Amino acid sequence: MEAKSVRMRRSRWGIALFWLSASAAALSGCTQENSFIETPSMLSPQSPEAARIANLSWFMFILGGLIWLGVMAYLAYAIWGNRGESLEEGLENPNRGSRIVVFWGIGFTTLVLLVLFGLNIATMAANNSGSSPELIIDVIGRQWWWEVQYPQYGFETANEIRIPVGERVLLRLTTKDVIHSFWVPELSGKVDTIPNRVNELTLMASQAGEYWGECAEYCGLQHALMKLLVIAEPQAQFAAWLQQQQTVPQAPEDTLAFEGEQIFLGSACVYCHTIEGTNATGDLGPDLTHLASRRTLGAGILENTPGNLAGWIIDAQAIKPGNQMPPMDLSGPELQALLAYLALLE
Ligand code: CUA
Description:
Low-confidence stretches: none
Mean pLDDT: 89
Order of helices and strands: HHHHEEEEEEEEEEHHHEEHH
Helix content: 40-55%
Bound molecules: dinuclear copper ion
């Protein structure tokens, strides 16, 4: 008898240990192996809006934790601490159980939900208040990348949103295909992009820096590889970037790059991509007018280096299966020429 209960206690500890190590192993999957992409955390907010959301999350976590502890304590009491009450005593007081259910189960639960509801509404109201921003950026979800337009300045880019630091900007979010969700955890809450509808979000970064974002609504095969980068820069640097993005690239003078331009303009590239100042005006893929000035390729999944770009051009399907970019059948020298041309698109 004694030996059996010791064995049972041991096996209980074994099970607890197993779950503890299993959840530790699962959580270790949260760190990003690719050093280029940083894993953003909503618990390190970099804007007043994100700070309010993080505070609310902590409040909910702590409140939920306390309630869980209370429930567990009560459960322990029910199992081990309540031996004194006999059946007779229980029968004398038949409504005790229902009183507990009404008070804690209905009353307390409703109170907690009402408090959380109120705090949620207050957080949303606070995040939507404030002066209306001057800078407008249109963000359009695509399978599986982000089209980014600066309508007041008449240019377009992709998977990269630059904003002046410390200034509120207005994002107008929509989609050309399915529902996506725009989320830059360190700066804002999530906002869905819905077909034929424009949702608005004000975005601000208190500190200069790079903030990773991602699609937060399952949108098909490459949902997980639909990232974007928000770059917050000091005003002068941002103004210089705006200026540069509005320029139309010069025709290449160098022979290799000129050859590359001919290859680009003579191939299927022009049906899907736009390069201002050329006859490439496609809209299926990202605007490449200033491709070389961007930090990433393939919607934030690769650093924009000549090697990665070459790999993407030759066989984007191997890198991100299911995306719309077909493999390009180019010889080595043709690829070199094309890369020389694309490198000029700053
Ligand atoms: Cu777009 Cu998930």
